[in-house]
Write a structure and sequence with these properties.
The protein is mainly beta and about 400 residues long. The chain is built from two helices and 33 strands.
Length: about 400
Amino acid sequence: MREYFPVWELKVKRLIIVLVLPILVIGGLSACKPSSESWQIGKHWQIGEHWQYSPQAIWGDIFIGTEYIFSGGLEAQYISTYNLHTREKQRVTEFPVNYLVDEPSIYNDRVVWASCYYSQEMRESPQKDIVSLNWDVFLLDLKTGELQQITTEEHAQTEPRIYGDTIVWLDTRHEAENRYPHYYDVYAYDLNTNQERRLTSTNSIMENDLGISGDLVVWTDSRYAELSQDGYYRQHDNNEIYVYNLTTGQEKRITTYPGNDCHPVIDDGRIVWLREWEAREADIFLHDMKDSREIKISESGFVAYNSYPSIYKNLIVWADARISQGNTAGDIIEGGKSGAAEIYLYNLDTKQETQLVPSLTEGEYTLEVGGQDMRFTQRQVWMRPMVCGDYVVYEKEIMIGPTIHAIKLSKE
C-alpha cells in the first residue's frame, strides 16, 4: 500500500494537526451523573449539522464529534466539543481537508481518534480501499492541549476507544496481504506504562464494533461465520459478541446464537447489543457479566440494524423501525411509505419502555406508478442514540447529511 502515498513516506510519520486555541478546559468534570432514576422526556434541541460521533462520545456534559464544513465541497473539518448544559460549541482541533478523520472517543479530559493522509490523487485513484491506508491513533488532552501520537505502525489502526488509562483500537497489521474485506485484531495501549499489547489472536474481526468500560473490552467477532465460496465471511452470518478482561487476560465468548450478534456497547459489566435473525428483523439484548444472564430488552422485532444501541446505568436507548417494519432508508418507498425510525428508552429497574422521539410525517406527495397516481408518505428517520446521565444524543437522517439533536431527561 505504500505506493499510494509516496510523499507521506518521505516524511516522519506524524499527522499535521492544528490545535484551535483556546483549548477547552473541563474543570472538575466527572462521569455521567443522572439527576434521578425516574425519567420523562424533557426539552430537545438541535446541536448542529454534519457531525459524526462514536458510541463513546459523551463524558459529563461534554459531547464530542468530528464536525465537517461544506461549501460546494469539504471546506474544513474539526474535532469539536459541545457542552450539553450550556449549549456552547468549541472547535478544539482542525485537520487539513486532505486527511480522513475517524470519530473521536472521550474519557474525562482525554480524546482519542484515528486519522490518515488522503490526497486528492488518492481520492481520484481506482484504489478506493481507505482501510488500506496508514491510519494511526492520536490522543489529545483537552485540559493541557498536549497532543500525542499513540501508534506509528504502517497498517490501519482505527476505531479507537478510551477508558481510564487504556486506549483500544482495531488493527489490520496481522491480516493477509491485500485482503478484502479486512480482518482486524484488537490492540490496547496503557498510558501509564506506554506499552502496547495485542488482545486477540484470531484475526477474525470484520465489523467496526469496539467498546471498553473498566477492564472489559467488547467487540463483534466473525470467527464462527460461514465462509462464502470465495473464502470470505458472509455478511450477517453467525457473528458473535466477545469480551476481553484486561486484568485477567482472559477472553470470553458471550453469545452462541446462530444469527448475527453485533454492535455491542458496555457499561459497568453490562453488555448490550443488537441480534439480527433476518434482514431488517432484529432486537436488543443484554448480558450481565456479574451473573451471565442474557435478557431480551426490545420486543418490536424491527430494531434499526444500522445503528448502535447505548446503555448507561439502568437506561438503554436504541433506534426502532417498527413503524416501517425495518426500513430505515428515507428515500426508499415501500407500500406507499418511506423508511422511518424512532428513538426508544428502556428502564431496567422499572422494565418500562418509553418512546422518546416519534417519527412524524414530513410530507405527502403523489407519483404516477404503472399508469396510476399513488400517494406516498415521507417520515422522519432518527438514528444512533446515545445516553449518558441526563442526556440522549441522536441524529436525524436527511439526504444532505445528518443533523444532530439532544434531549434532556428530567424527573417525573
